[in-house]
Design a protein that fits this description.
Length: 977
Amino acid sequence: MKRREFLLNCTVMALVAERNALAESLAPAEQTVLVGDAQFQLALSWGATGLKEKQFHVDQRQFANLTGVPWVVEIDGNEFTPEKGSVRLVSSGGNRPARGVIFEGDVSDLSWRLKYEVTGAGRITKSLSLTSKKQTVLRRISLWTATSEVEPIVARTQLQDVAALYRQDTRGLFVSLDFPYSKIETAKTITSVSYPPHELLTGSQVYACHSLTFGAIRLLGRERYGYDEGEVASMDAYVQQRHQPRFERPMFCSSSIVNRYTQVEGDTIFYTMKDHPTLSRNTHLLKRDLALLPKLGMEYYQVFPGVFDWVPDDPSPKTVEELMSFARGQGVRMGDYSGANYLFCPHYNEYRNSLNRPEWLMQDKNGKSKKGLFCFGHPEFVKYYRETVVATCRRYGFEIHCLDFLYLQACYAPSHGHPLGADGVYHQVKGLVDLLEAINSVSPQMMTWSNSGNWKELLPKLAWSNPNLYLTDPFINTPWQGLNMTRLLDDARREQMVSLHHTHFLPYRFFTNCQYFFSQNSVVPDIRNFEYGALSTLAVTPNLTLAEIRPWLDRLSSFNQERVIQFYRRWTDFVHQHYEFWKKTYQAGENPGVGAVEIYGHAIGNRGFVFVINPQYWDRTIEIPLDDTLGFPGTGQCEISELYPVERLRLTPQGPIAAFGTRVPITVPAQEVVVLEVRPAPLKIEAARMYGLQGTIDQTSHGYLIKTQGAQGRTERFAVLFPPGGPTIVSVSVRPDIPSQPKRHSAPTPLKLLNQTKQGVLLEVTFRRDSAPKGLREWRVEPCEFTKGIDSNRPLGFTDGAALKFPLFVNVQDSFIHLPLTDTLADKVGLGPLANFCGAYVDNAFSEMQETWIELKTGEAALQGGILASKEKVTPRRPLHPFAKHTGKSWWLQSSFHLPFMYTIGAESAFEDHPILALPQIRQKQLKEIKAWINGTELKVQRYNYPRERKLGCYYADLVGSGARAGKNELVIYLQY
């Protein structure tokens, strides 16, 4: 039997015996002290029999048969606990329950001091210090050694363990070491949380152990990614509150890296430095970057090359000082870079610097050194790293340091001073944390910013030392559908942040998404997607990095440049202003992925902001819960203001005013982020107030004048509320003279008065001209072989076959189908080939905003009944159509759509402005062939292979130069699976 297992078994037997003894009456010399608060209490018994953790209570409910030994220490092959030896109660705070207690004692040659204190609502932190009377090696410390009948769930990464989670009915308990590494083991009925300090103690030396926190959980009965949302919320609060976060503001930063001209040849990364602003060359571009950042609201800027890539006088100290002075003049905090385990940056290591310290390299089990991979468990390596970076930061006043390429793993080098193998990982984590804290000590505003590597293995508690976590380079490995690379990367990063929040418990306030404009090879350009990327990021985290934005802006018109700058400045200012709301992110709706619509909220009391993200190529009507799911109170009334994409007060199915504690349906357009502000309803209407329509409403001598605009052909239902006691509306009309329309192009603007009450009126307007198409979801479908379809002239259109709405897997009654839909789930539930087809979407069809003025005339009129409400409602679930599981592999589909405009006479715009037909598919590997015809003319269908993962892609067709025309268009598609 292994020694460690033997010791655990011995402890198990001791704890079982102890638990049985606790069932009997206490010995006369034994005393009990209670520590905690109203949510969580711990009963400690102490006396002649030592010190024990006797009972755990969450919301006055005892965790059945859960008892613990306060600590277990392994020294020189022996284990020591406070179960024997002298125990003294030093302080108990005088309350019941006490907010804190302190015990001292002695066991063998070891003196100890143990403190329990309430460190947050429902949380107790345990701190232990040890003093050895002789020189000894401290091998392992466990601050949680507890026996229970129910084995806890252990949350872990591949490198270390995060927390033990106990569940009992609707209550839970978490246990976590206050350090970004621990080992959690369960043997029989005992669970321990430990770490291996491998620390040499000299006589009388005091060793302060890492503390441990345990606390209450209120289980909510809703799981995401395998954990109850109550467990995630408790761990989120623990990480945010156990240590004061370094920054109480958003972290907005940028970088000087530009990937536009990149080629990898051996150990040379950049093919040219044509567009790369650095401390060594192209400093005029660096100054342009720095001058741009305050306009965008960016505070930090990370510049290359990093200190390990420098050589004497390149960059020259004078140049660095000059550029730092320029940065400070712009209000920008600038700093440099290092490559973590590798030190050097292959992108900018112009002189091929290296470090000839082979004794610092990591080794595998066979004693072979790992090329270029230095070990953070080696004290001399950490000292060299720390002194180099810290000295440089202090010399120049750097206030950001980016660490890249972290690869912690088991190291077997016998000369590094750490245990061989897995236990040595703790020492690497400690070395990394020591480095981060040393860098942070340079300035109160110093920000460490992590990048690629295995940083996520140290979540969530790495955030205490490294608050800005961007966890991977731009990469996509999930089958998101789209035609813009920047947008796809934003979706992939949001999916990563959400999944890691629920599995690794990192609060969203520490995540960063880098909106990375480095891949301009997209079918649909960034200028039509940058808003989505920024807002879908700010939906979950207050932090945003913009990379390669200046080179992208340089390629835009001056009009679009100003538009982009104003947008970012608006939203960076917005998050700064409302940062308190972003300290907690609530999630409703579905998880990110295929078919899903996501809902995120940031609320304090009865005010908050809700972000609804629909990355799909079809619209959805979903329900927004105005309750504690998104952080709102259960009672009271509210008003909902839409901040994006249309600035307006929302009209809801409940009317202009909605009730907290209810669910409000809202239709979310395809490929869009809707941002809402929820706030208390006005106590009194002082002036006319318009809901459901953007624009203004002014009082006139004969009533009111509404000045608005809307997308052509779009119908909007809206309400106007008036101050109490005013006259009623007798007529409504659209001003035909504003805007002035040429006669040959004039078009009506239908307007209806739907309802009128003593509070106001309900109207409906349809903005002039035909609407542009978006999602094509209604199709005629028939299984048919290709040649048979050609022989029957199906490319010209057909009217037979089944009428279906795509995607077939959305809003269905099948309980086995849920969103997001993965390829694995689609296979598991038996979806057939046709279910892969997700309909079509017309991107960028011509459309104009139509300015409209509406007059409301007042007078005497009879009032109607009813409410002033929108007509949004959740689509009823439908049975899954048999074709969704049909095994046929050959399908013909037909749909139609109306284009208000199409380019003619060769006066065509640039490709980036063309209307594009997107043809999204799931399980793309099953698709063998796709053909399309528009108005009988074959349409060239292409596949956009994603530049960052060419195995993934999306099908599309350019409608310019095809058979598409202004007016009605018949679209026919043939699919072969």
